Amino acid sequence: MSIIILHGDHSIRAYEKLHLLIKYAKRKGLEINRISAEDSVSEKLTSKSLFAPHALFLIEKIKRAGKKDLKWLKENITRIEAEIIVYEPSKLSKTIINSFPKAKVEEFKLPTNIWKFLDAFYPGNSRNVFRLLHEIVKKDTPEMIVGLINWRLTDIYIFLKNPEKISYETWRLRKLEYQAKKYSEAKVVKILRMLGKADFEAKIGKNDLLTSLDLIIAIELE
User: Fold this and answer.
1) Which of 15, 48, 77, 202 lies in disulfide reach of 209, CB 3.0 to 4.6 Å?
2) Is 138 exposed, middle or buried (0-12, 13-18, 19+ CB in 10 A)?
3) Is residue 51's pLDDT more than 50?
4) Which helix (H) or strand (E) holds 3?
5) Are strands 3-7 and 55-60 parallel, antiparallel or unpaired?
6) Residue 101's CB: how many other CB atoms inside 10 A?
7) Tens digit of pLDDT for each residue in 156-205?
């Protein structure tokens, strides 16, 4: 039995590691069992049997787990013989991490300049966004940047629709609220669609993704 926790704000890197681990588990012939935010973690684990050496449990969105589940995990998780991966595309608190004794923890952190870029990505701020984008692409790919923009815009859209569904630290919520005020729901959807089209066209060799990003920023964030 092993427990691996993958978390952090660099959701792209965290997901890449998750994909590799699942691929490896499938090669070993492990049965993949997903536990989502709608499930009771304790009930799902116990219903699948505490002794499942040929299974892998993927626990997602553990932040939504209740105190009862976290307490159960801390007291019982080491009895489970299956492989366990906890995946959270944001930073987890020590309380949650401590609910998984003996877990191997990998945190994926976003570099400071990427944080600045994502926070700056709003209408009326194109000059700063251009500058930060072209600093970032010296080390990271446009594909990764598009993924992170999608992540941030999705957060903004959810915040505009129902702020209570966003469960970040207070300081991050304040930043997200400030940024969300710069957008309408229609604007967010429009940019998301443009990014999706740009990504697709880059994949089929029709357009250069960085050039498309520059155009989106120039048109939509001016």
Assistant:
1) 202
2) exposed
3) no
4) strand 3-7
5) unpaired
6) 12
7) 999 999 988 887 778 888 999 999 999 999 999 999 999 999 999 999 99
